[in-house]
Amino acid sequence: MESDAPLTILQGTRILSFTQFLLGPAGVQYLADLGADVIKIEAPGGTLFERNWAGCDLFLNGVSAFYLCANRNQRNLTLNLRHPDGQAAAKRLIAVADVLVQNFRPGVMERFGLAYEQVASLNPRLIYVSASGYGEKSVYKDRPGQDLLLQAMSGLASISGRAGTPPAPVGAPIVDQHGAALLAMGVLAALLDRTRTGRGQKLEVTMIRSALDLQLEILSYYLNGGQMRKSPTSLASMFHPGPYGIYETRDGYLALSMSPLPDLQAALQLEELAPLATERFNYPAREAIARILEPVIRTRTTREWVEYLVPRGIWAAPVLDFEAVLEDPAVREADVVEEVEHPTAGTVRLLRFPVEFSSGRASCRRIPPRSGEHTDDVLREIGYSEAEVQRLREGGVV
User: Domain span at residue 45?
Assistant: First the structure.
C-alpha cells in the first residue's frame, strides 16, 4: 500500500502552534506529518522548555532529544508575546491561519490578547484548539498538567501493578501521547466540518479526559457494578479471566492472553488445570489458574514457550526490551524508524508517523527547526517589509 510520494493530505492548511512540553507539540507534529504548514511560535532567545530539558539528560551535540522527537516538519517563528508588536504580528498570522493550537495554562493567551474570544472576529474560519491539564473552567485550572500527576489523579496508576504493591505508573507518558492523538483527531474533524459550514470553532482537549478515555473499558465495568481488585499473582489486569498476565520463565518473561482454557489445557496437559478448564473462560477461578501456571512457566525459556505454544493456537508472546523490539522481524518490516541528518545533533533516529496511506508516506521534510529559524520568511509572508523585520529585531520582539 505504501507510496514513495510525500504525504500531502493537509497541504495548504496553515497551523499556528503556540505549544510546549509534549501533548501540544506531538499533536501538531501529527498534522505536520500529514502535510500541514505548521508554524511553531516561541519566545526569542531559545528559552523554550523542551529545548533545554531532555529525558535521560540526552542531548545530541547540545540539542535536546526531547525537542527533536516532537517538532519535525515545522517552521519556527520567534515572537515576544508580551510586547504589543509581538501580539500584533500574532494577530496578522491568525487572520490568515486555518488552525491555532495552544497549550499554555488557562488565562495566559487571554493576557496576550490572543484568547479565542479576542481573535475569533479576525478569522471566522479559524479552528482554535486549547489543550490543558484539566480545562479552562476547572477548579484545578491553575494546577500543573503533567503525565504522572494525571496518571495518579485519574485512577490509572491505582489499577496497575499487583495487590500488596504500590500503585504502578505506566513506563511511558501515555496520557500526553493519547491527548496528542485526540487533539489531531479533533482538528481533522473540525476541518471536515468547516468544509460543510464554512465556519471555524473552538475545541478543548484536556489531559484528565485523555487519561479517563484510556480507561474506557475498565471504567465502563466499574460504572456498571464491576468489582475492581488487583491480583497478587501474575494476572495483569483487574477484569480479564485467567491466564491473562505476565509470567516468569527460566530466562525472562512470557505474556499469556485470553486463550480458551480447554485449548490451554490441551497444550499443557496439567492435571490441576483440568477441573477449571471445563468452560472457555473461567473468571471466578482467575487467581487459581495463575497460581497453577506460575511454577510451570518457570520450567522453560521464553523462546521455548513461544515456539511450543503459538503453533498450538495459544495467545502467547515474549516480553521484549527495546533492543529486542527493534530487532523483531515484524517491527523491522514495518520500517518504523527514520534517520535524519541534523546540522548540529548529527544523525538522529526518529519514530515515523504511525499511519500509512496509499497516496503517500509521511517523512521528515523539515528537521526540528532552530529557534527563530523561519522568522523572517514567515513575517514577509504576512506583509512585513525588511525594514519592519529589522525594527522588530532591534526592539526584541523577534
Answer: 14-214+332-394
